[in-house]
Amino acid sequence: MDLFDTGRYLAGLFFTLGLIFGLWYLLRRYAPGMVRGAPISNEKTLFVKEILQLDPRRRVVVVNSGEREHILLLGLTGDMLIESRNAAPSVQGTPDVPKIEATS
């Protein structure tokens, strides 16, 4: 009797796993926007530029989104957009630093 019960449990497990994988296959096939298999592009356009912790419950976050920069206040009760502005142009490389010559 124990072997019969173990077989039933295994059959139920395989049936459940089959249903899960079957649903996953159908979602990938007929609704590809819901299940993402690979990233759409390698270039990330949204990133956090700076975080300032105001107190244990609130923080100010500067988010860069391509050509725009957004300043957000994040807290427990809700999030608020403080300002949205054009982002400063990014500087490539290091800035030119004037050389200081030692005099003796």
Descriptive overview:
By secondary structure, the protein is of the alpha+beta class. It folds into two domains: 1-37; 46-86. It is 28% helix and 29% strand. The chain has one helix at residues 2-30, and strands at residues 46-53, 59-65, 68-74, 79-86. A four-stranded antiparallel beta sheet has the order 1-2-3-4, with no helix packed on it. Strand 3 and strand 4 form a beta hairpin. It is elongated, with a radius of gyration of 27 Å. The protein starts with a helix and ends in an 18-residue tail after the last strand.
What attributes does this structure have?
4 strands, elongated, four-stranded antiparallel sheet, alpha+beta, 104 residues, 28% helix, 2 domains
List the helices and strands and how they pair.
Layout: H1 2-30, E1 46-53, E2 59-65, E3 68-74, E4 79-86
Antiparallel strand pairs: 1-2, 2-3, 3-4
